[in-house]
Please model this.
Amino acid sequence: MADDGAEDRERHEFSVEGSETVYDGAIVALRVDEVAMPGGTTARREVVEHHAAVVIAAVDEDDRITLIRQYRHPLGRRIWELPAGLMDVTGEAALAGAQRELHEEAGLRAARWSVLVDLAASPGFTDETLRVYLAEGLTDAGRPEAQDEEADLEVRAVALSEAVAMVFTGEIVNAAAVAGILAVSAVRAGHGRTRKVDSPPLVTAEAFAARAESRGGR
Model:
């Protein structure tokens, strides 16, 4: 698809005329922006700021993908996901964060890494972005001691075909897991290609990380 940058520059500029922070928490902030609309009016837009995140589709030599099952309090239940985590370590590169999360959550290390897809979690209200990696050449590194929800975490390697079936039966509902599993399946079928790990994303969440850094921590 052609670059839309030139066309965008000729269209209305949605400039922010004012902004107010309503809530500033440990992992999210809520701000309300007054945004210039076409026709000369303004409208209030609520934005949930969140760290960027990394997600790992770890696939072994037998074409099994690593799933984790953990409790998610907003849903009030345990769900199947891919290993993932927030980019909340100051100065940490996305790939390093993905490698850390794969070890912490699944006890694995990978010899080969590539990018599957980049995601905007729910751009209607949050700036959260996720980069989904494909990790291959897996070795067991042992899980470090976990805390909180991760202490209850279940790790399972399932056939990729089974994971795809779990998406379509509704057993896997986590959006990043759905995207990652289907992306791996598409790549394996020759319908897509991975990217190099240093390929830049179109967008990445930065506001909450900057906010956290300005207050001296996470």
The first helix runs from residue 5 to 9. The longest strand covers residues 108-120. Residues 49 and 207 are 6 Å apart (CA to CA).
